[in-house]
Specification:
The structure holds three protein chains of three kinds. By secondary structure, chain A is an alpha/beta fold. Chain A folds into two domains: 5-250 and 337-431, Alpha-Beta Complex (Amidase signature (AS) enzymes), CATH 3.90.1300; 256-333, no CATH class. Chain A is built from 14 helices and 13 strands. An eleven-stranded mixed sheet of chain A has the order 1-3-2-6-8-7-12-13-11-9-10, with helices on both faces. Chain A has a two-stranded antiparallel sheet with strand order 4-5. In chain A, a hairpin with a 2-residue loop joins β4 (102-103) and β5. In chain A, α7 (258-273) packs across α9 and α7 crosses α10 (326-349). The model of chain B has no long low-confidence stretch (mean pLDDT 94). In chain B, a hairpin with a 2-residue loop joins β2 and β3. Chain B is mainly alpha-helical. Helices cover 41% and strands 9% of the residues of chain B. Chain B has a domain at 3-41. The relative contact order of chain B is 0.07. In chain B, α1 (3-12) crosses α2. Chain C is α+β, with helices and mostly antiparallel strands. Chain C is 43% helix and 20% strand. In chain C, the strands form four sheets. Chain C has an eight-stranded mixed sheet with strand order 6-7-10-1-11-12-13-14. In chain C, β13 and β14 form a beta hairpin. Chain C is elongated, with a radius of gyration of 27 Å. The mean pLDDT of chain C is 89. Chains in contact: A-B, A-C, B-C. At the A-C interface, α7 and α8 of A face β9 of C.
Chain lengths: 441, 90, 446
């Protein structure tokens, strides 16, 4: 049985770290077998679901997301909904309408995004399992910034029923935890075909666990990466080699197109998904109904969407407009197929593609506020490629910088080959000594 | 992206932007689209699948049923005599 | 003048296109709804197999090219009845393209495409204060058929629609529930520029709206004016079209492909699904093959395709003339009642007429027995009723011999008996039965 004391201290913990948007009112764990949290873009019957957006404030979904339902079914108690960038739009969780989660290693720094609250909860709370969602790096980025393990299964592995869409062809539900063995355990609980999400219905069975024997490192993997990250990554490679893993260098020339292609597809889809939020049916609705519908919808959307949401809606609306659709939207989808092809051919020769997870350690909030949108988009340079290709990938902690901030590295396996990632993470945990953050409340 | 285009796109997306927003977004989006020009050099590819994995022929049988009580769905909505209230049309 | 139509037909599925909500009449607004058709965040579409099958049948009927793979797209436009503010429809790869329909079996009308899409909800207008939306219709499957501008007059457009709809109903087995379920967008140009009249309901209104536009555009051009490209709507009550928006104000729908449904490989399904002869083609074939006039053929087929089949069986068992006379007469007269009782095997009719042909039973007896069989009544009852009917008609003919005289010139004179007999029999006999009996009795006297 699990410790229930954590339930009574949740709000205190949250006061300090702001990782939760909503916290359970339960104080007893009852016969629950584990505690878990879910990102605030997964619907839950008993808790408000806002996806970090003001426009959905107060929304209580009438159904549970399949991922949450399966975790509950396996004996999990949902303790809260974790804070995130509005609709997943961000790399630092600074774009939430409901506060900003603080990095457990340094409260002046970001948890990463967009599943920042999830990674924070996993880092701070013992034995906690966090459901995260990744569209372009939203699980691995915060996992690496918070010094924990994160896994993104193959696109379609976990049903998206009940996920508030960002980019439907990109969104993937995964797990963040301080314990490597949780990755395989809980992905297995959430995975499996669900008729309510047709894209989950084509999946083969979860492959057998398989020891990691060889990795390929793209030639440009550490280009533009900070010195501290580069050093930790090199150490990581050496450790792997000492464990008997073959390391090869490969050319993957199409990866440089991943970020623009990713942002085009993601925002094209996002701008259609967000069309439904207009002051009718759910979320904020009290408005002047005598306005003509165009004006009524415009007033709500302009008032309640945050700046980054507006920026991405504009970008996505533009890239699918007549006259630009072929250049951006159609081309980006071709690029995606080229990237998938490139991964496939590399992964025929080895078990995983290895890179650092993020090009730098978690930045200070004061530095984040000085970044241009394009600069922060480019922070996804290493997490973007596996995400656009729907490849399963995991981030494992591999070192710390001079200030003690965690650094992660990312393993990418072939589609449906999560098994190799599960065992690689568990093997890695045996040799790598994590430095857990000091938690005082 | 010039201000005029930003305004046009915003109108289509049902967003009304302040002067300041127009200024900022025009600058940001020009910056971003400048970077996206990289796509022009990327080689074309015959295949342009909708999803990153193959999703084909997932079909449902034509059997009517209802799972959630519609009243429950209307609970959070602004309604009048079971109609959902919306803004004026003309 | 050039007219092109975009025709929306509701497909007769039991559940909606992307969710299992029923498509039947709902007891109250917003009672046949679920998270999918209300566009709730996190709910996603699940494709109804039957809708794809119906779509393929219609694409085949229209002689369209059906490619091996088809998929769906999002069309983005903001409107209160549009639950997601995008409609799932087809764009780059519709189910069928480049088909052909032969109006009256002769004039080719090119079919641009046919695709499947979801219907939006329904808005009840409530003055200027707000709108009230019922999403029961949201997600009901539609086929949209788009024609090239190959129709030349409003009357021709109506005729085309009438034939097309009859063929569609036959192909996918839609019950005849009046014209209302057909919605049309009509494109019409008299000169160079065209106008689109959106969402016209029913055949009659299509003709009215087009006629109004024809007159309006012609007058405008005569007066030296210019027709501007625009979208208009038809006011049914006043019979006029009203401008809704100019072309340059059209929304950019910003189509993207729908990632939640994947693609559909329909090659095998297309090969497996077979369509029968369309009613329009059957009319033409009957008339050509049996030498009966088109009007009679149309009468048979319109009554029911099964009746037309029976005619063919009769013609094979006896001869064309016998088959025609009996099918138009006693068989037609009792057919409605036969079908109302569930229809079924009508071999008995063929056998009875065979006996008459062989001289085993009389004309009158054959008539009585056919009627008894089709209406499911006891033979004796029909016989006594028929005797009564015969005597009432005979009395009338005795008093009004002019009917017989007129009948020589025009068979329609027999219709004059109907009113009188109806009154006398208290409505026990149908007018078809009365006419049939009258003709038989007059023929006896001639």
């Amino acid at each position: 049985m699990i410790e229930t004391s954590i339930l009574s201290s949740l709000s205190k913990i949250n006061e300090k770290y702001q990782m939760f948007r909503t916290i359970t009112s339960d104080t007893e764990a009852g016969d629950a077998e584990f505690l878990f949290s879910a990102k605030d873009n997964l619907t839950s019957k008993d808790m408000e679901t806002c996806s970090g957006s003001k426009i959905l404030e107060g929304y209580r979904p009438p159904f549970d997301a399949t991922s949450i339902a399966r975790m509950r079914g396996a004996g999990g108690l949902l303790v809260g909904k974790t804070n995130m960038d509005e609709f997943g739009f961000g790399t630092f969780s600074t774009n939430s309408a409901f506060g900003v989660p603080r990095n457990p290693y340094d409260p002046e720094r970001s948890c990463g995004g967009s599943s920042g609250g999830a990674a924070c909860a996993a880092a701070v709370m013992d034995g906690h399992v966090a459901i995260g969602v990744s569209t372009g790096g939203s699980i691995c980025c915060p996992a690496s910034f918070c010094g924990v393990y994160g896994i993104v299964p193959t696109y379609g592995r976990v049903s998206r029923y009940g996920l508030l869409d960002y980019g439907n062809s990109l969104d993937k539900i995964g797990i963040i935890s301080a314990k490597a063995s949780d990755l395989g355990k809980y992905v297995n609980i959430m995975a499996g075909a669900d008729p309510r999400d047709p894209t989950s219905c084509m999946q083969p069975d979860m492959g057998a666990r398989r020891k990691l024997k060889s990795v390929a490192v793209p030639k440009d993997a550490t280009e533009g990466v900070s010195e501290d990250v580069r050093m930790a990554f090199t150490d990581g490679l050496e450790t792997l080699e000492s464990l008997g893993v073959d390391v090869d260098t490969v050319e993957m020339p199409s990866l440089k197109y991943a970020i623009p292609a990713y942002y085009v597809i993601a925002t094209s889809e996002a701008s259609t998904n967000l069309a439904r939020y207009c002051g009718m049916r759910y979320g904020h609705q009290k408005g002047d109904l005598s306005l003509k519908f165009d004006d009524y919808f415009t007033s709500f959307r302009s008032q309640y969407f945050g700046q980054e949401a507006k920026r991405r809606i504009l970008l996505g609306t533009f890239t699918r407009m007549v006259g630009f659709r072929d250049r951006y939207y159609s081309k980006a989808r071709m690029v995606r197929q080229s990237i998938i092809g490139e991964y496939r051919s590399v992964l025929r020769e080895c078990d995983a593609v290895l890179t650092p997870t993020m090009p730098f350690v978690s930045p200070k909030f004061s530095d984040i506020s000085k970044m241009t949108p394009l600069e922060s988009y480019k922070a996804d340079i290493l997490t973007g490629p596996p995400n656009i290709a729907g490849m399963p990938h995991a981030s494992v902690p591999c070192g710390y910088d001079r200030n003690g901030m965690p650094i992660g590295m990312q393993l990418v396996a072939d589609q449906w080959d999560e098994g190799v990632l599960f065992s690689a993470a568990e093997e890695w945990e045996k040799t790598f000594e994590s430095v857990r953050p000091e938690v005082s409340i | 992206m010039d201000r005029e285009t930003v305004e046009k796109v915003a109108r289509s997306a049902h967003l009304k932007l302040t002067e300041e927003e127009l200024e900022t977004f025009s600058r940001d989006l020009s910056d971003i689209l400048g970077y996206f020009a990289l796509l022009d050099e990327a080689p074309d590819c015959e295949n342009f699948g909708i999803d990153p994995i193959d999703v084909a022929d997932v079909l449902r049988d034509d059997e009517p049923h209802m799972e959630i009580d519609p009243d429950k769905l209307l609970e959070g909505m602004d309604t009048y005599n079971n109609y959902v209230r919306g803004p004026r049309l003309l | 003048m050039k007219i092109g139509l975009e025709i929306h037909v509701q497909l007769p599925t039991k559940s909606k296109l992307f969710c299992p909500c029923p498509t039947t009449d709902a007891p109250a607004p917003n009672t046949h709804v679920c998270p999918v058709c209300l566009g709730f965040p996190g709910a996603r579409p699940m494709m109804n197999r039957k809708a794809i099958e119906y779509g393929i049948l219609l694409a085949k009927m229209l002689g369209c090219t059906i490619r091996d793979t088809t998929w769906f797209a999002r069309k983005i436009y903001f409107y209160p009845d549009n639950a997601k503010n995008f409609q799932i429809t087809q764009y780059d790869r519709p189910l069928g393209e480049k088909g052909m329909y032969y109006l009256n079996g002769k004039k080719p009308i090119r079919i641009t495409r046919i695709h499947i899409e979801e219907d939006p909800g329904k808005i009840k207008r409530v003055g200027d204060l707000s709108s009230l939306v019922d999403y029961n219709r949201s997600g009901v499957p539609l086929a949209e058929i788009v024609t090239e501008p190959d129709l030349s007059t409003p009357a021709e457009a109506r005729e085309f629609l009438g034939q097309l709809i009859r063929d569609i109903r036959h192909t996918i087995d839609i019950p005849d529930d009046g014209e209302r379920s057909i919605r049309c967008d009509c494109n019409i140009s008299v000169g160079i520029e065209r106008c689109e009249v959106k969402n016209v309901t029913g055949l009659k209104n299509v003709e009215r709206a087009l006629t109004y536009e024809l007159v309006r555009q012609t007058k405008l051009l005569k007066a030296g004016g210019k027709v501007v490209r625009e979208t208009r709507r038809f006011d049914e009550e006043r019979g006029v079209t009203i401008s809704v928006r100019k072309k340059e104000m059209e929304a950019d729908y910003g189509y993207i492909d729908e990632p939640d449904l994947g693609i559909f490989n329909v090659k095998e399904l297309t090969e497996r699904l077979k369509i029968g002869e369309s009613p329009q083609n059957m009319i033409l074939r009957l008339s050509k093959e049996y030498g009966i006039d088109e009007k009679t053929a149309k009468q048979f087929v319109s009554t029911s395709v099964e009746l037309a089949h029976l005619f063919e069986e009769l013609a094979a068992a006896t001869d064309t003339e016998t088959a025609r006379t009996w099918t138009s007469g006693a068989v037609s007269a009792g057919w409605k009642s036969f079908e109302a009782r569930g229809g079924g095997d009508a071999a008995e009719v063929v056998s009875l007429i065979g006996k008459f042909k062989a001289g085993e039973i009389t004309d009158t007896e054959c008539n009585i027995r056919i009627r008894a069989f089709l209406t499911g009544t006891d033979v004796d009852e029909v016989r006594s009723g028929s005797a009564d009917l015969d005597s009432i008609i005979s009395e009338y003919l005795d008093v009004n011999p002019s009917v017989i005289e007129d009948y020589r010139k025009n068979e329609r004179a027999a219709n004059r008996v109907i009113g009188h007999v109806m009154k006398r029999t208290g409505g026990a006999c149908s007018s078809a039965e009365i006419v049939d009996a009258t003709k038989r009795l007059i023929e006896e006297r001639l």
